[in-house]
Amino acid sequence: MDVVNESRLLLKGKPAKLTRLHRETLIGLLFLSPWIIGFILLKALPILAALVLSLTDFKMLTPEATKFIGLENYIRFFGDSEAGASLFRSLKYFLLTVPLEMVVALALAAIFTSERLTNKRVSQTLIFMTSIIPATSIFFIFLGSLQYANRLITTPLNLPPFQGNGLLLPFMALWSIGPGFLIIYSAMASVPTEMYEAARVDGAGPLARFIYITLPMISPAIFFTLVINLTGAFGGAVLLDRGYILNFSLSPIESYINNTMFIQADLGYASALAWMTFGVMMALTIFLFRSSKRWVYFPHEDEENEI
User: Which residue of 71, 73, 134, 266 pairs with 272 in a disulfide if CB–CB is 3.0 to 4.6 A?
Assistant: First the structure.
């Protein structure tokens, strides 16, 4: 009836009064406007600008000599062995660190959901606080820990010192486990206790309850964490600013893009590299979403099927 009355007022040339829904919509857009403006200026426009620059030979030191070259930067990517190797190393980094992060996050979440553990809030805060420490500080913490390990273990036993080449990535990954841990812990804490009690009555042990109840119920949280870690492994959007310097990142492809942009000053090719990396990330993400139908449990889908 409100819509009919407003239409009649508009036909008669009288301005229609805003309904409550319209007012709430305008107020919501007003509160969202800072984020929308920031997204357009700081996200959407730079992304579109990178797409345009990827079709040029833009050099940061000689911008006046820029000319349109079409798809040459993308063709150059397929002939760049270092770019391909960086992408492969990023995938290798993902396959190495993400399973380790998931296992440790699951173990910590299972420990913190135990009723026997006390002072959970303090321990959770300490675990999450490690994730907001800048990456440069974490690197020096790692070097200091490595030196103490050599002094206490390898030197007294006359063993070769720890070099740390293969330990840095797992150390950095585990040090920044806070966001993934909180996501999985929240999902695990929300599992109905009635399900555990029923399984316990049926004779299911702790391991069986964890495999057949906990893992399926928290599979959406595991899936979300997996996607976030995927984007982080390729240098995409991450939950926290890790504080890396411009020419270094745990993601090899991101380091290569930064080197191309800031050291070689080749912004056109760096933009093409960023878009190619985005394409690879999207392909892997689509694969994860397609595979999620087989191992991720969504309770609302079962409710819709029942209806």
Answer: 73
User: Tokens in use for 282?
Assistant: 């999207």
Q: In Å, how far from its chain's centre is CA 19?
A: 40
Q: Are 252 and 82 in contact (CB under 8 A)?
A: no
- The hierarchical CATH code for the domain 76-135+163-299 is 1.10.3720.10
Query: What SS3 class is residue 25?
Result: helix
Every domain of the chain and the residues it spans: 1-53, 76-135+163-299
Percentage, residues of the chain above pLDDT 70 = 81
Q: What is the pLDDT of residues 191-213, one digit of tens each?
A: 888 888 888 888 888 889 888 89
Report pTM. Answer: 0.71
What is the Cα 264 distance to its own chain's centre?
28
Task: Report the run of H or E that residue 258 belongs to, with start and end.
Answer: helix 252-258
> How far apart, in whole angstroms, are the C-alpha atoms of residue 252 and residue 93?
8
